Structures are given as C-alpha cells and as structure tokens.
Amino acid sequence: MRGYPVGHVPYLRNPSLCCKCEVETGAHARARSCPAFRLCSNGFTVTEPLQLPALHASHAGTWLREGSGQTRGVSKGDAVMAAADTPLLMVNAPLVATRLGYPDLSGLDLLELYAFVRPAKFCVPTAKGLAEAVGLPPPESDADTPAMLQRAAARLMETCRSDDWAEREGAWSTLQSLTRLRWPWAPLLREHVRKPERAEKWLFSRLPEWEEAPERPQPRQIKLSGDEVTAQLDHLTGEGSERREGQRHFASEAASIFAPREKRSAPHLLLAQAGTGIGKTLGYLAPASLWSHAAGGTVWVSTFTKNLQRQLRQESGRAWPARRSDGSRPVVVRKGRENYLCLLNLEDALQGGFAGRPAILAQLVARWAAYSADGDMIGGDLPGWLGTLFRKRGIAALTDQRGECIYAGCPHYRKCFIERSVRSAAQADLVIANHALVMINAARARDAASVPRRIVFDEGHHVFDAADSTFAAALTGRETIELRRWILGPERKNRGRRRGLAARLADVSSYDEAGGAAIEAAIEAARVLPSDGWLERMAEGLPDGPVEALLYQVRAATYARDESGGQEAGYGIETEAAQLPGELVEAAGHSLSALNEIRMPLVKLAGRLEAVMEAAPDWLDAQGRARIEGARHSLAWRIDLLAAWIALLDRLGGPVDERFVDWLMVERNDSREFDTGIQRRWLDPMEPFARTVLDTAHGVMLTSATLADRHEDGPDWEGAIAKSGAAHTDAKPLLVNAESPFDYANRAEVLIVTDIKRGDLAGLAGAYARIIEKSGGGVLGLFTAIRRLRAVHGRIADRLAREGLPLYAQHVDPIDTGTLTDIFRDDPAASLLGTDALRDGVDVPGESLRCVVMEQVPWPRPTILHRARRSAAAASGSTGQAFDDAIIRARLAQAFGRLIRSKDDRGHFIVLSPAFPSRLKSVFPVGTPIIRLTLDEALARLSGAQDGTDASVETDVREDENSGAFET
Ligand code: SF4
C-alpha cells in the first residue's frame, strides 16, 4: 500500500473511488474503516475531480474524458471538434495543438491556472510535472492522464479556497480584470476566490523600494595563505565529506587571482582545466568568499548557461547567508536589463497596451511579479513556459529591450527590479553574471564600483564566443530601426508610453537651448533610418531613404552571389564584403553621411548634458540627476554604436582592415526573411576583450572541463592561452590542470557506428529509434542541422510514443530550451533531440541521461567568418585542418561531458558516422573504451548495459594507437 504524508489526497485510480478502500469519494469522509480516512480527518478534504471534459494528446494518440464519464481514445479530428464545442481541460495548449495539427486550438489550460494560483513556483509543464507540483501521483499512462487533469484542476481550485493560500493577496483583484478579459478560467474560479474584507495590496504597492547605499570603499590589499584556503574549503564542503586532492589543489591555485596586482594592465591570470567532478565551484568559492570577507571587495563569477547560474546560487549558500544583518544580500545574480520585467511596460500593458490573449498574459505576469524574488523573466522564477502558452512575443515586450528606460522619470523607479539589481550588485560580495554582461560592464559600467575587477569565468571555453558576439558590429535593418525608435519614440498611436529622446529629456530641452536644438537635430536626422514596413519595401524594390537603399543593395548582392544552389532555401545566406558593386558602394557613401548627421547632434547633446550636470540648476534634484545620468549612459552607448557603423561603411569598397572580417547577409528562418545587412567581427575578439576586461581587472580566472584541448601528453595549453586574450596584455598566465576523478574506463563507452551512411535519412532515423527503444529512453540526440533533426523527429516520434517513450525536440516542440531540459530531467523514459544549445547546456546527472547520440562528426559550418579565421591560423604557422580539428574536438568533448555528471552515472556516447577520424579519439578521457562497430552490435552493448551483462565486441581502448580501427 502507498503511504501518503498527512495532507495528501488518496490516489484515486478511478476518480470517483478511493484507491485504498474503493469507497466513493463523496462518502469517503464517513468511511472510518478506510486506512486513508485518518489522513482525511486531519482537516484534509478529499479532492473531487472537476467535472469538466479533459483532453490529452501525445504522439501515441489522443484521449478524451467526458466530465464524469469514461476516458476513451479519439481521433485527432474528433478531439478538435470536441474542443470547438466546449472548453476542455488540457496541459500546454500549444503543445496539444501541435500534436493535433490544429494551431487554433484553445481550452482550459491547467498551466495558466497554475500560473494564477501558484505564481513564481516551479512546475515542469507536463501532466506528470503538474501532478507532482500539486501533490498528486503522476498518471501511469496516457489514458490515465485526462482523469488526473480533472483532479489537478480541482486541487488548484481547492488551494484558492484554503485559508493557507500563500499567494492570496492580489488574486481577487486580478481575477476581476481576468473576468473582464474573458479568461476561460475566470468564471470557474469566481466562487473559490473570496473577496477580501479590506482592499488588498496591489502589485505596485506591494513591491518594496530599494535603498540608496554609500559607495563601497576600495578593497583591502591582502594575500590568502594556502592553509586558510584549504580550511575554508573544508568548511564549505562540510564535516565528513570526502577529501578530494584535485579540488584542494585547484582551490589553492584559484587563490592566486586575489593577490594584489603588481603591474598596471597586467592582472593575475589563471587558466584552470578542471575535469568534471573535481568540485570546481566550491574550489573557487572557497578563496572568493575568504577574500571578499577579509578584503571587503566584490568577486564576479561569470557563467555561460543559466543552469550553472542556478547551481551557483545554491552553492553560494554554503559560504554566505541569504541576508546580512542589515538585510542586504551578499550574493546577487545580475543579468542584462533585457532579462528583467520593466514595471512601466507592465503598467502600460495592464492599462490597455495589450489586448486579447496578451492582456491575459500581462495579468498573469503581474501576479508573478508580486511574488518574484528578483523580477528576472528569462531563467529566473517566471516559468519559462508561460510566454509560449500565449504564442506571442509578449514577454519580450514587457522587458526593457530597447533601452527606453526613463530612469528617475519613471513612477516605479524606486521599485524597479533592474535598478534594485544594479544597486545590490554594487554592494555584494559575490555577483553571479554571464560572460556578455561582464564584458559590457567592463566596457561601460555606470560607475567605477560596477566594473568587475576580480572575475572567475566558469564555462571559460565560451569566453571566446561571448567576446565574438559582444564586440561585433551589425549594421542591419533590425538594428537601425531600433535606433530610430530610441530617438523618435512611438510614431503610431496606441504604442504605450515608450518615449523618444525629446520626451525623456523634456526638462533639459526647456532649460538648455543648445541641448534642445541638439535633440531636434537628432530627431530630424533619424527620420532617414529604416521604419516599419522596411522588409516589405525591400521585397518590392521600393526602399525609402539612404539606409534602406543600402540594405536593398546588400540584399540584392547577397542573393546574386548565393552559391548554395537553393540548398539553403529557408536559411540564412551570406557573401563576402569584397569586390562590391558600384551601386552598393555608392549607397554606403550616402548612408555614411546620413549616420554622421545623426551622430553629430548626439555628441553635442552628450556635451550639453554634462554641462547641465555641472551647472546643477535649481530644478535638478537627486531624481533629475539620476535621470540625466541614465540618459548620458544610454546616449554614450548609441554614439559608440553609430561610430562602429560609420567605421564599417568607411571601409566598404576601400582597403581591407586586417583586424576585421566583414560580410553581407540575409537572415531567414523557415523561408521567412527577417533581417539583412552588414556584419563585422574581430578576427581575434580576444583583442578587444583584453583591452576592456583584462586591462581593468586585477585578477581573472578562466576555468572549464574543456578549457584546453586534450592531447596524448596532456592539455594543449597553447590553444587555451591564445583564447584567453593573454597575448594582448602583459599578463603571464598561470596554468593548472585537475583531472576528473570519474572512472570513465568502467562507466562510459564510446561507440562509433559504421553502417549508417551519410545522407541516409531513413537509416539515421531508424538508428535513433532503435537506440531509444533499446535504452528505454534517456537519450540526448545532438544534431548539426535543424533540417535533419526535424526529419528524424517526424519519422520516429509517433512510433516511440506508442511504446511509452516520449520524444521531445528543440525547433519542433513549442517549448523553450530550458523547459525542454526540465521535462527531460523529470522523466527517465523521455528522450530529447537538439542542436548546439543542448551540447553543453544540459546538466542531467542520474538516470534521465544514459546515452548521448551524435548524428555525425560535428564539422564546423564553412561560413565566411570561419574561412577567414582558418586562413589566419594557417598563415600563422598552423594548418587549416588543425584549426577545424580544434573546433570539432571541443564540440565532441562538450557533448561527451553531458554523459557522466556524477560518480554513479554510467552510459554510452554514440557517433553515427563511419567517417570518424582516428586523430580525434584522444579527445575522450584516457581509458575510455572506444569501439568501432555496426548498429546491431551497438544495440547489443546497450542491452548488455541494461541487463548488466557485457556484450562481447572487440574493444579499442584509447591507448591502442595502432589498431587502425579509426581510418577516415
Ligand atoms: S525605471 Fe526604467 S526599467 Fe525600471 S520600471 Fe521604470 S522604465 Fe522600466
């Protein structure tokens, strides 16, 4: 018999009968002989299922349950008809719609109800996840699911009636608005959400105000001793924990970046290869916490994935309390401002800025905001699935994407999540951020206290790519239209309160004539930038203004030179910015003049703002100063942006600048064009990284399990140093290598499958299906092309679902990547297909991930940027093949790294390609068996792993250099 904690509903297999005593639930409270009765009599009311029809659709079929009847399998057509007749209970309506092939499906989505009842609470958006979140046993089969949905709905309604409902405040008021918006759940909830006796606190009055704090003094100059660091590490790992020598060594070396800097522009630089499982997070948090405490300074830890940020937030709890005695937070997560809810945008949305379904989303976001820890909408406590339920870009419209913030001019300034986060970070001991934000803060922080000076780049193998995007310049339609909106503000009615430059600086223009004239001039000049409808005008050959004319020429040249022969139809195309047509060069000249016309008044305006600040007129109170400071900051950003565009155009048709790679591009997705323009990347982005980050820092550490390539004789430090930026500074990098303690030889196998031919899509799909069946799920499938991923998923998802093996896929399921990973982690029978983002963004220890399958060797895409860097590598003494190999090896190492996340994990890494070059095998940890075999033999090995026997196939262990098994 199942044991249920007090307060749990008995498991109702048949929803009208108790599973323990088979007494009808209505009579249950009277059934004193029932073993579950004691639980019920502890004040718990048995949940009656909600008597509404419920629908569940998977790849295996569709099930419908009438309000109080039986569950039956139905056709997709019947399900769509039933949904059209009456609102059906379902989980994740967009996903159900995809399964039914009927995009307009709507109903009573339980996830929306969950978002209302339990805002800012985690829930995996599946029937199983929902059941767990509301304290019900998960359904045992697809056919059981509709009945569970009825019980889950009833359970959530019951929460609304309960006196203990923690999120009651604000619910009644929100429900009134949702009723006006005809939210399908509103009439059902009305009788459960009681009207408060006194007016309840609404979001904007409920949120706390942030406090101003004096600037932190500069940190003391101290050196940490090895003994102190290891003692702190022991303290953090806890008494009785296993002593790991690799971790102690790593921690002692990590302390070196906190020593006083000896020379200007030469930070202490540590490159640390830290094998999976050495415990590197606590390894660097030990010296970081010691130093921040003793020196009174801030340490920045930068990650590439949100997953690691979450983990760091948890682990930091061992070194710091949640709050200091004064109530402030010693550990703060900082993200780019586009991640946070902008309260002003939300208020606009609530007051009519959003209509229809987006207006309902705004109400649910307001519920969440009132209970959110930090207002982080992307990867914080807002469920990642909430936005996708509404199938629009509503979430993005609620953040400050365009830098339109009006700072102290905003009525919510003192409660603003972004402002609170910036201020908290300036006072924090530990700031958890991402690579791009660290680079941006180093380049243009608001004040000296916000410049990162002691930085740990975890997932350090991504620093190069992050620098590559951060220091790039893109003169494209989307970018230029953003600038136009920032300067001009809304040009149509009903576009909310987003403001242009004139509205943001109205008081300056009325006080300072020259400043006012500069604003006018900038507005006039910005009218030549692309405006709404520019993409249509491109297609019709009717560009408007000099910049659109340039984009038109760029698009024409890109299509004219397209060499893909239609193979890339539907995806982006690009061409070199060389030997350009005269019309394009001429259009570039006109655009350059137009951009200069915008930049000059902005520069003048920046000067006037500085003068106003210095003159400090009477009207300039603290709030006014803060607003002008904010305007100066965002103005400087736009002036730099314009300078970068002007420099880019200046070079078109002229002599090449060897430091940059420029190209023309048209971006498309699913055959729909959405941008066109000119891109510029640094040939070596670590050059600007060194200038902005390393020059200003005192200590920097780059660490990762795959920081350096692995050669037969150890890590390839040369490549890691080249990608650290050290060559562009006086810093002398210190190198550390801590090997993984995992027993790869006995817990992992690499299987190279030789009988799936390249291009054989049917064979590839069949191989995936058979591997997933043999493993019983738990497979992470990695693809290098979205087309192949979709084709494989389309061929096998139904077949697998019928066997109880759900298959999810990035680029197919309407679910964000983080949520897909949560679903995969939550269900050991599930498998997940994806591309780059999953290659090293997935941390799934335990049963849920037992097998990683790569569809082929992950060759780099032959882009213009790749070709330029490959040529540069060849010119500097390396070879093109070595350059490509380094990329492939890094990708293989990252993908393999998904497999074994804890010492108890075991699994298989399968590459479905006979063309696996033998020179790549050293990328796998020493001792890992690497076997070249047919698919049937690989499946036999998977069965062996399942039943504990060892299928016998000849093994080629990495040390066996002469086996010849890896011929290309
Ligand atoms: S201060 Fe800026 S970002 Fe914050 S709520 Fe106001 S407008 Fe939005």
From TrEMBL:
InterPro entries: ATP-dep_Helicase_C (IPR006555), DinG/Rad3-like (IPR045028), Helic_SF1/SF2_ATP-bd_DinG/Rad3 (IPR014013), P-loop_NTPase (IPR027417). One of its GO terms (biological process) is nucleobase-containing compound metabolic process. Coiled coil: none annotated. It holds the Pfam family Helicase_C_2. Transmembrane segments: none annotated. Residues 233-508 form the Helicase ATP-binding domain. One of its GO terms (molecular function) is nucleic acid binding. Keywords: ATP-binding, Helicase, Hydrolase, Nucleotide-binding. Residues 946-968 are annotated as: Disordered. PANTHER family: DNA REPAIR DEAD HELICASE RAD3/XP-D SUBFAMILY MEMBER, REGULATOR OF TELOMERE ELONGATION HELICASE 1. Belongs to the helicase family. DinG subfamily. This is ATP-dependent DNA helicase.
